[in-house]
Amino acid sequence: MTHRDAPPLSGSGIDRDARTRMSDDTLNAAWQEPQTRLLRLRGPQVLVLAGPGDYVSLALHPVVGDRPSTSLFLGRWEGRAVFAEVVDESTESTGSTGSTGSTGRVDPPGTEWRHPFDFSSNLDRTERELMTTALALSNWHASHPFSARDGQQTEPALGGWARHDAHGGEHFPRTDPAVIVLVEHEDRLLLGSNVLWESGRFSLLAGFVEAGESAEQAVVREVGEEAGILVDDVRYVASQPWPFPRSLMLGFRAKLAPGVHPDDIAPEPEEISELRWFTRAELRSPVPGLLLPGTLSIARWLIDGWVAEGSNPDGAPEDVGAGS
Question: How far is C-alpha 151 from the chain's CA centre?
Answer without folding.
Answer: 29
